[in-house]
């Protein structure tokens, strides 16, 4: 089969393998014997389609394409199914992953065993019950168990205090004043010897002020007590759909996370 041109790569369906040619010229070859599953979604006008080749070691090789390539992709799928009927295919619809249930948790232990390097994990579940972590759809799990002892709380007391300074002032003013005519000449008579009789007078005052300040501090305080929920450990159990191996992760849980987990679908047959 001739090459199928995608958005950035080119796909070649060979007799014994799949070849994906990148825009840099490198080739990724995947033998059919190493393919665990093929996921695909046909393109729409404004959304690219994809074929995801999932290998036995749970790695994913993706090939994206436009709407004009849908027919060629359909022929490639029929050819592979006819030659290798043991390879399972999963078809998805555009935007289907957006409908998946999603819960974000912080793992305490066990997350590395399911391939999550960081403790912050997004647990996702499809409408058919398949569980996967973050955006890794190469491995699906069944949710088979959940354990949590319920909420726990810390009693927190918040106190507030304020101070006001009250100030009182007292003032006192006392003194005396003598008013005298300024430089007045009295009369025009002369005394004996021709001496002018008169007197010059000035003015003066004296004032004393005394102030007293007294103050006191008034204090006001109040307190409130509330219960604050703590994160406590819970456990989720999963089973790998490929090999049946079971895994358990411990994570931090509260009432909000608990209510979301209870909305997930559990494999009651486990």
How would you concisely characterize the structure shown here?
The chain is mainly beta and 270 residues long.
Q: Any overview of this molecule?
A:
This protein folds into 2 domains: 4-91, PH-domain like; 99-169 and 211-270, no CATH class. 8% of the residues lie in helices and 52% in strands. The protein has 2 helices and 16 strands. It has helices at 70-83, 255-261; strands spanning 4-5, 10-13, 17-21, 27-31, 35-41, 49-55, 60-65, 89-91, 101-109, 120-125, 131-133, 136-147, 152-178, 204-230, 232-240, 246-253. A hairpin with a 2-residue loop joins strand 11 (131-133) and strand 12. The two termini are 44 Å apart. The relative contact order is 0.15.
Which features characterize this protein?
mainly beta, PH-domain like, 2 domains, four-stranded antiparallel β-sheet, 16 strands, elongated
